[in-house]
């Protein structure tokens, strides 16, 4: 697995989550990448607050973009798409992604309450729905950044609340993180096959692959990045996809 390649797109998803936060949304976001051409096809941000729609999760917003552009019945395209999302897909989104036949899912932090890629259920690899669409799920990339954005959000929400909840009214913790328990998502063999034997220490010691949090990613304004992302998605067409520029990344 080309870790740096995946990190490049996870950084984009993280910037987009920051953009969502700056626009009064829950900071969860995703990027859909067409692997044969290595191009961004679509993006999604959580839209539940603005739309007051409980199912307007980031993944659904991105899926809607793809379906609007390539047709609702075109599931073929998903077989060549890797999803990069800041938070583990919930059970609903994990199931939708699997039924559409997504190629691979890469995510940041786990979703302890609703996670469908290991935390609660393992939709991406179980036999409940579309077992023929089982796919690889890569956890833990830019996990601290994803957690910190959610902390920013909850502290801000609590400050805005007319009656701040005593329990939630804590100081923003900028330093401590729960251990990265890879075993929730991957067996040791699964970890080795994704990241290689040289990184097994991270699995055993429950460490993040990167010790330092990239503060620039989550503290900078991302308005220009967002414009650029929209342009990229508009430029993508299946016509271009028919002439692969590079080899798919495993
Ligand atoms: Zn979801």
From TrEMBL:
Cofactor(s) listed: Zn(2+)
InterPro entries reported in the protein's UniProt record: APOBEC/CMP_deaminase_Zn-bd (IPR016192), CMP_dCMP_dom (IPR002125), Cytidine_deaminase-like (IPR016193)
Protein keywords: Hydrolase, Metal-binding, tRNA processing, Zinc
One biological process term in Gene Ontology: tRNA wobble adenosine to inosine editing
Reactions this protein catalyses: adenosine(34) in tRNA + H2O + H(+) = inosine(34) in tRNA + NH4(+)
Coiled coil region boundaries: none
Cellular component annotations (GO), alphabetically ordered: cytoplasm; nucleus; tRNA-specific adenosine-34 deaminase complex
CMP/dCMP-type deaminase domain: residues covered: 4-128
Enzymatic class: hydrolase
The keyword tRNA processing is assigned to this record: yes
GO molecular function: tRNA-specific adenosine-34 deaminase activity; zinc ion binding
One Pfam family named in its UniProt record: dCMP_cyt_deam_1
Enzyme Commission identifier(s): 3.5.4.33
Family designation: Belongs to the cytidine and deoxycytidylate deaminase family. ADAT2 subfamily.
The name this protein goes by in its record: tRNA(adenine(34)) deaminase
Species for this entry: Lachancea meyersii CBS 8951
Origin organism lineage: Eukaryota, Fungi, Dikarya, Ascomycota, Saccharomycotina
